[in-house]
Amino acid sequence: MSKTLTAPLAPGSVIGILGGGQLGRMAASAAAELGYHCHIFCPEENNPASEVSKYYTTADYDDEAALAKFAEQVDVVTYEFENVPASTAAFLIERIAVNPGPKVLHICQNRLREKDFCNSIKVPTTKYAEVTNRENLDRVVRDMGRPCILKTTEMGYDGKGQVLIGPDTDLKEAWKTVAGDRKKAETILETLVDFRMEISVIVARSIQGACQTYVPVENRHKNHILDQTIVPARISQKISDRAEVIARHMAEEMQLVGMLAIEMFVTTEDEVLVNEMAPRPHNSGHWSMDACVTSQFEQFIRAVSGLSLGSVYRHSDAVMTNLLGDDVNGWEEILSDPSAKLHLYGKSEAKPGRKMGHVTRVIPRK
Ligand SMILES: Nc1ncnc2c1ncn2[C@@H]1O[C@H](COP(=O)(O)OP(=O)(O)OP(=O)(O)O)[C@@H](O)[C@H]1O
Ligand SMILES: [Mg+2]
Question: Which residues form the ATP-grasp domain (predicted)?
């Protein structure tokens, strides 16, 4: 029997979070404001989330003894990292409510399932096809036409595990980039979208089925990593409304309890296509901490704990910039601008490309 949460958790309850990164850290801080305690379950010691949480467990995601103990010590489980093994969620759900539930996790862990799900509920995506071995690739690329993108179906992030197939790309090399030396692997080939803009929408859904969406935002990447989020996205009201309708529809069809961040393309033809989604707060929602009545982290905690959702009223527009690697050394200068809100994640080593913090410049709305 799987467990579900049917009533709000009282203050003082313990929220278990799988994963210990900055998303967990900011979620744990939001939980603390609501009087909850957090228990971080993460394989790495000294992670950003444990530092601000009352309890933590350092163990692998397949350590059943540690998971069983964790389940006994928490009142609900959620995750800030969706690539936990499916068996971890299955093990936990027998013992304690997990929000968002295993069905949502299952869809969001795999690019093919994400796109199949979208199409099953008539949400448009780019054209795509499954490719399971090197020999198939030639045929599928021929059928689909170039340019296209080959991606791993699982575990990709920040553009890792994907390769653009242009007019001259050698398919042997392309396969190797994504699948390494394996002859067989589950990959997805997508047509390259001619997009005008990348946007994202964050939607939360409560145990009572109420939905709230944050305004669609515009995302700009550098070296495949999110660089800036501009709020709101510079798109027409019509496109903005369509993006929000898609987000709500997806949350409802998934019977989501928690949060879903959906990355979308606005094409040069003004279509809105879903690219991918994550069942948790998202880097492109960090601006909400400083520009909305309820931040994405508070909303996430409210949703997974069975509380009613907070207002997403946006009192300010915003530009959020990620601080990657050495960017963090500019902290003093950033702080000298009074409209800049600095958030640092407490990571000790500023490796290139590592997300060390972010800064949000707020622009109060008239
Ligand atoms: N089909 C596509 N057409 C055009 N551009 C694409 C397509 N798929 C991916 N991209 C580009 O590559 C970027 C990264 O792709 P995607 O979001 O699918 O992967 P990811 O590795 O999970 O990224 P992240 O973790 O940063 O969200 C996209 O933001 C977009 O700029
Ligand atoms: Mg992405």
Answer: 115-305
Minimum CA distance residue for ligand 1 atom 1: 192
Q: Is 191 annotated as a binding residue?
A: yes
Interval between CA 159 and ligand 1 midpoint (Å): 6
pLDDT band at 157 (very low <50, low <70, confident <90, very high): confident
Q: How far is the CA of 200 from the centre of ligand 2 (A)?
A: 10
Residue 302 has pLDDT above 80, yes or no: yes
Position 158 scores a pLDDT of: 83
- Confidence (pLDDT) at 269: 97
The dihedral sign for the CA sequence 152, 157, 161, 164: positive
What CATH number corresponds to the domain at position 274? 3.30.470.20
Give the separation between CA 296 and CA 73, rounded to whole angstroms.
Answer: 25
327 is in an annotated binding site: no
Q: Are residues 234 and 279 in the same domain?
A: yes
Residue-wise pLDDT for 229-244, tens only, equals 999 999 999 999 999 9
> For residue 1, is pLDDT > 80?
no
36 belongs to a structural domain: yes
Structural domain for 172, as ranges? 127-191
Q: Tell me whether residue 182 is annotated as binding.
A: no
- The count of domains in the chain is 3
Of residues 313, 321, 309, 331, the one with CA closest to residue 361: 321
222 is in an annotated binding site: no
Predicted pLDDT of residue 366: 83
Q: Whose CA is nearest to atom 25 of ligand 1?
A: 157
In the structure, ligand 2 is a single-atom ion and the residues with CB under 5 Å from it are 263
Residues 199 and 279 grouped into a single domain:
yes
Q: Is the CB of 194 under 6 A from ligand 1?
A: no
- In this structure, the answer to whether residues 185 and 223 fall within a common structural domain is no
Residue 156 pLDDT greater than 90, yes or no = no
> Are residues 131 and 52 part of one domain?
no
Query: Which numbered ligand comes closest to the C-alpha of 114?
Result: 1
